[in-house]
Amino acid sequence: MTISSVFVVFCTIFISVQAFAVELKGALVQGGLVHGQVSPGAQVLLNGKAIKVGREGAFVFGFSREAAPLASLVIIKRDGTRKEQALEIEQRQFDVEYVEGLPPKTVTPPPEWRARRKKETGRVKKARSYITDDIFWLQGFDKPAKGRFSGFYGSQRVLNGKPRSPHYGLDIAASVGEPITAPATGVVRLAAPDFLLEGGIVIIDHGYGVTSTLFHMNSVAVKEGQHIKKGALIGSVGAKGRASGPHVDWRVNWGNVRLDPLLLIEEK
């Protein structure tokens, strides 16, 4: 991803869309997070599926890396009035890197890892399954560590001719031991020091299914169930797990939808 393309996509987060008496704020783009406000008691459907609406009418949703160019947003007011709006979702081009000659074990995990990975991925899934009434995501997000961006959302590698899963995080390179802070207020749903691929990992629940995941951590300084504020220390930068160097990999989800953290922050 070039610097210019990052800038163009990043700027879209400041665009507000006015549609049928509801204002949408965020990035109408692949990887973007969008939120809005409706009258209390109204329902909101995205592509035919109901999404959470709070008591005061707040709602949030996001678009995946593979999101189609058009999405349907339906608002059903308490009196039954129904209005639908087509949303145009900006399409992006993502970098693809081809790497050949790697040892097979670095491309395909060995069979003996399977049982452990099943447990670890199960814990991640559970940590991201909470749908609470908290609206901490509405307070915005900060960069969780000081350092340069070394990897971007959406990029993909083809290893020994085999396409791998796209990279869904924002990598921030820094020295081992540098502090990692909470990008937004929330509740710690997962805190573990030594996952097989992720190393030290923390998942923070910001409410409404929005979560932050941070991994490759050298140390983890929080516990599951702990309430933490934006900017609070949660651990330190490392190179644990499958990492080519010291950095923190920060990922943001809305439920199972993987979002682009770069769209949520402004470079400090």
Description:
It is a single chain. With 268 residues, the chain is mainly beta. The chain has two domains: 3-88, Immunoglobulin-like; 96-264, Glucose Permease (Domain IIA) (Distorted Sandwich), CATH 2.70.70.10. The protein contains three helices and 21 strands. A hairpin with a 2-residue loop joins strand 20 (247-254) and strand 21 (257-259). It starts with a helix and ends in a 9-residue tail after the last strand.
Task: Please describe the structure with a list of short key phrases separated by commas or semicolons.
10-stranded antiparallel β-sheet, globular, 41% strand, single chain, Glucose Permease (Domain IIA), 3 helices, 2 domains, Immunoglobulin-like, 268 residues, mainly beta, 21 strands
Largest sheet geometry: 10 strands, antiparallel
Question: How many domain modules?
Answer: 2
Our count of helices gives: 3
Query: What general outline do the C-alpha atoms trace?
Result: globular
What is the strand and helix layout of this fold?
Layout: H1 3-11, E1 16-19, E2 22-26, E3 33-37, E4 43-46, E5 49-51, E6 58-62, E7 70-76, E8 82-88, E9 96-99, H2 104-107, H3 114-127, E10 148-151, E11 156-159, E12 162-163, E13 170-173, E14 179-181, E15 186-195, E16 199-207, E17 210-220, E18 227-228, E19 233-237, E20 247-254, E21 257-259
Parallel strand pairs: 9-11
Antiparallel strand pairs: 1-2, 2-3, 3-6, 4-5, 4-7, 7-8, 10-13, 11-12, 13-20, 14-19, 15-16, 15-18, 16-17, 17-19, 17-20, 20-21
Briefly, what is this?
The protein is mainly beta and 268 residues long. It has helices spanning 3-11, 104-107, 114-127, and strands at residues 16-19, 22-26, 33-37, 43-46, 49-51, 58-62, 70-76, 82-88, 96-99, 148-151, 156-159, 162-163, 170-173, 179-181, 186-195, 199-207, 210-220, 227-228, 233-237, 247-254, 257-259.
